[in-house]
Amino acid sequence: MSKGMIDKRGFSLLELMMVVVIIAIMAAVALPNMSGWFSKKDLDAAARELFTAYQQARLQAIKGSEEVRISFDTSTTPNSYIVRATTTGVVIGPVSLPDGSISFEAPAFVGPYGSTTTGFNSRGLSLQSGTITIVSSDAPSANNKRMITLTVGGNATIAP
After folding, report:
1. Among 36, 39, 66, 98, which one has the highest count of C-beta atoms within 10 angstroms of its own C-beta?
2. Domains in the chain, please, with CATH?
């Protein structure tokens, strides 16, 4: 290399600082949206966990040829549920929702067992059909509810 030439390999300190500033601005814009995404993810996980409990209760009812009830506690330990079989005892629970931002709205089951209890008979049919809604206070308001519906035939669905 001759005396008059300057080595032009690498980055200058100014270029490096500009890249760091751009990354910081992008992170500042993205972080508020991330908290809503995490809250929605927690809501989906709670809904899937309850849906799985319904499936396990139905399986136990058919396999054990017994009645299995799912009771949602609205007084003693709010936002929790327990799955109990008539002869084998507790199948699942008690299970509480993950944190204070996720809760059950009033269960809406219709039948002789009351509005907070449902379950399955020995043939896998529901004892009483209805809906339970799980709500997240931290998720974006357009997408902060999951409804789990149990039909008379014993099928459970999650919406939306």
Report:
1. 39
2. 13-159 (3.55.40.10)
